[in-house]
Amino acid sequence: MVLRPVPALSSLLAALLLGGCLAADPPDPKLDVPAGFREASERAPASPVRQDWWKSFRSAELTRLTEAASVANLDVAAAVARIEQADARARIAGSALLPVIGATSDVRRTRAGSADGTRVGEGINRYGVGVSASYEIDLWGRNRDTLRAAESDALAARFDRDVVALTSTASTAQLYVRIMAGRDRIRIARNNLESAQRVERLIRDRVEAGTATALDLAQQQSVVAGLRADIPPIELAIAENTASLAVLVGRAPERVTVAGSGMGGLALPQVRAGLPSELLARRPDIALAEARLAAANADVQAARKAFFPSISLTAAGGFESIALSSLFNPGAGFYSIGAGLVQPIFEGWRLQGELDLARGREAELLQFYRRAVISAFADVDRALAAVRKLAEQERLQRESLESSRRAYELAGQRLREGTVDIVTVLNVQQSLFQAEDALTQVRLARLLASIALYQALGGGFVTADARAVAARAP
Length: 474
What we know:
- The chain has 474 residues and is an alpha+beta fold.
- The chain has two domains: 29-114 and 139-307 and 350-472, Outer membrane efflux proteins (OEP) (Up-down Bundle); 309-342, no CATH class.
- The protein is built from ten helices and four strands, in the order αααββααααββααα.
- Strands 1-2-3-4 form a four-stranded antiparallel β-sheet, with no helix packed on it.
- α2 runs antiparallel to α4 (142-209).
- The longest helix is centred in the middle third of the chain and has 68 residues, at 142-209.
- It is elongated and about 135 Å long.
- Residues 1-21 and 463-474 have low confidence and may be disordered.
């Protein structure tokens, strides 16, 4: 006697073979990680960036505002809400791995007509209570893949919160530094205005004495007017930056007061970049792209396994009777047990379309992941170059300022002695004013470059080991 496999068993064997053909490995990003940053002066590993990196600037007010932004920022709060949504979707996806159990109870009254249609039968009451259960056997792992995708999305939501938090804290620090630079520029502009007014009074005295002309006075008055006109735009920039800072800390502008007087109270931190390979564990945007890619890969696996048959188990039991008093008698009990197998055959290419869609999404996110890594390397190199070159520029600008200041003092002295003309004084004066303002802006650029470097290095984000622990957390 030859044993022949039953049709259901044949379907299962075919599905298993098909599953082996459709299995696929996760995408390989094939990253080319350089041995060191082009603009880095060291190649040794650096200590991780501290999570409260803003304290490196040694400003209590900056620390207070930045920590307020990390807690009260509305974009961060929205990102936290997205985490709650993602967790809920993960719980919904996980419910497919558990049986569905429900209780039922009903009361029905039925009445049937007679066979010849000449009279109406009496109504009959029916009472019933029962319990039903159903369970889909996840034989191929499609539901587990769907859960894995949802869990990866939930992990991505946490990394997205970290990205938003890093962006908000860096933006807060940048705005604070810009406000301090604005106050330095206003102080310089007002000092320059007072100096120009002193020269104006000196020239006016010389006009009255007949040793200077009205043209000389008009030229100096033009300088004074220009210096006055420079102050309102700086004040406007401070007001705008203060309002933007208030938004970042989640308050109305009227509730935010910035007391700092200038950049003199800010220290310039020393930051080491470390190795590019370490950067992959420091940047939350890279972790975000990686988690989204993992979710897309799980979606592809689930879409592949949707071609396989689904097996469901059902069971129901309870009591049913036409009399409420006899509802729970042994004879009123009933039960049913069943199993079903559904094999997709033709669904208008819907399943194939869903698989192609998942593949396309995975390919897109793979490129986003690669771009995130390359952009991270570029961000660090740009920030390192800015930190080094701006430090050199500030040194040179200080030398230029000192030379301009000495020339201005000498020109003022010669003007009082009557040995130089007004044009020489005006030129020296303009050079000094421009040198002072330029130094302030270079100092601002250096502080902003330091903030950008902290941000490029991940801003104290958790390491890969910590991410793995977070991924295993319930």
